Amino acid sequence: MPPPPLKGPPAHASQTHPPRHRRRRARAPRAAGRRPRARRKDTLVLGLTLEPTGLDPTAKAGAEIAEVVLYNVFETLTKINSDGSVTPLLAESWEVSPDLRTYTFRLRRGVKFQNGEAFDANTVKFSFDRASAANSTNKDKRFFANFTTQALDANTVVLIAKEIEPDLLFQLGQASAIVVEPKSAEGNATKPVGTGPYRLENWAKGSSIVLAKWDGYRHADAVQIRRASFRFVSEPAAQTTALLSNDIDLFPHASVSRSLSQFQNDKRFQILFNASRGKSILAINNRRKPLDDVRVRRAIAAAIDRKAVIDAAMDGRGIPIGSHYVPTAPGYVDTTGINPYAPAKAKRLLAEAGVKLPLQLDLVLPPPPYARQGGELIAAQLAQVGIVAKIQNVEWAQWISGTYGNKNYDLSVILHVEPFDLVNYTRPEYYWGYQSAKFNEVFEKSRNAPREADRLRLLGEAQRILAEDSANVFLYQPQLITIAARGLRGLWKDAPIFANDIAAMSWA
């Protein structure tokens, strides 16, 4: 709700007198058509499905961290925009060598961290060296290990890549590439210190995170949202209720498909359907027997009706995929025909693999509705071919530590939202444990291909390998729904990454 009008003297019109029999001092009426000047709303309440497990995106994986801190508390050299383009942020400009291996960045001058320390080339070098260090927990550690960082002077940084990284400028705009202040870096999980327009004011665990405008920001005068509160609401019905009751102003990627008509018929709201690079998958632990057998993985894939899963998890708002790639990504090839829905084939493949039925597997489901609702149907479909998937509903922190961290699972439903995460299939230590020398070779060739056409062709080949190996069961690209109050401006139309750029928002 907008704040009440500021109190002040009433507007005056020409003086009139009441009738003689009621003559008394009276307040002059307001002039016709005039209203008290209202203060522009300068606060924002955002809803998120998941609460972050920490506020340092260099320490843990999880897009929910970036949704709170990226471009708000922390900044990067480059900035990713709603249309996927890359523009300067902490870097004013850059030059790229003809061989695509040397990047020279000119940094903004006069930038400071929220603790008063100066931002310069040395802080960039510290941040990137820290990300590639042996003890780094940065999810993109291998990306940072691919280049060395040199501080030529206080305002110039040079990155020298060992191998060509065609998407380097984009990746430097993601949360894993934030620039941190050396003295405060280790405390960023709970006390983040960045160069962004907002600072952490309060974190009530299990309830909300509050960011307050930082007056020391270089463009503080242009920032119109003074305070932003993030509230965590996982259940779809509760999300709908919070929005309809005006408790939440903005809910990016809301789980409101089943109540969408309520918002479409309510003039208080605006609705955005966001395209993303998100991939919903049934993750398979390739390390565990019998899941290390490609015939078993392909049997699981053949048991899944993607269209039915999309209906159950997203109310039909999704596009089937056959590999870890989506139709909106460059170099996409349609691989949905490699592992079609074929229950009879699934049974035959399990028999060929010598699997004794019923096969007992654990199916770990994190809180988001797409996982819980889709997971229930997937368990029912697997049961039809003799696979008993025992559902384990876990909280997000448990999924991060147990499934992602300790690899303690057989199957899990999860949405991968990063645009360039195909590289994770070259990492046998990653939580799904996939290993393929053939895939590694093709993927590395794609990274180093000098011609764009060759690169895209090789990416297509890499997609086919993943589909044929059934490294995971690739389900769908979701259509995301954002619900916002009518007067809120500066929203992203699409979501190439998960971020909420609060400083770009304002109230009409």
Trace the largest sheet across and list its strands.
Answer: 14-18-13-17-15-16
What CATH architecture label of the largest domain applies? Roll
User: What coarse outline follows from CA principal-axis ratios?
Assistant: globular
**Major sheet characteristics:** 6 strands, mixed
Q: Provide the domain count.
A: 3
* Spans where pLDDT lies below 50 across 5 or more residues: 1-34
Percentage beta strand: 15-25%
Quote the CATH topology of the largest domain: Dipeptide-binding Protein, domain 3
Report the average pLDDT across residues: 91
User: Structural class from helices and strands?
Assistant: alpha+beta
Helix fraction by DSSP (H/I, runs of at least 4): 10-25%
The radius of gyration computed from the alpha-carbon positions, rounded to a whole number of angstroms, is 26 Å
Quick overview of this protein structure:
The chain is of the alpha+beta class. It contains 13 helices and 21 strands. The strands form 6 sheets. It has a 6-stranded mixed beta sheet with strand order 14-18-13-17-15-16. Strands 1-10-9-8 form a 4-stranded mixed beta sheet, with helices on one face.
Helix and strand topology:
Blueprint: E1 43-48, H1 63-69, E2 78-80, E3 86-88, E4 91-96, E5 102-107, H2 121-132, H3 141-145, E6 147-153, E7 156-161, H4 168-171, E8 198-204, E9 208-213, E10 227-232, H5 236-244, E11 250-251, H6 260-264, E12 269-274, E13 279-284, H7 294-302, H8 306-314, E14 318-320, H9 343-352, E15 359-365, H10 369-383, E16 387-393, H11 396-405, E17 411-416, H12 437-448, H13 452-469, E18 473-478, E19 480-485, E20 488-489, E21 506-507
Parallel strand pairs: 1-10, 15-16, 15-17
Antiparallel strand pairs: 2-3, 4-5, 5-7, 6-7, 8-9, 9-10, 11-19, 12-19, 13-17, 13-18, 14-18, 20-21
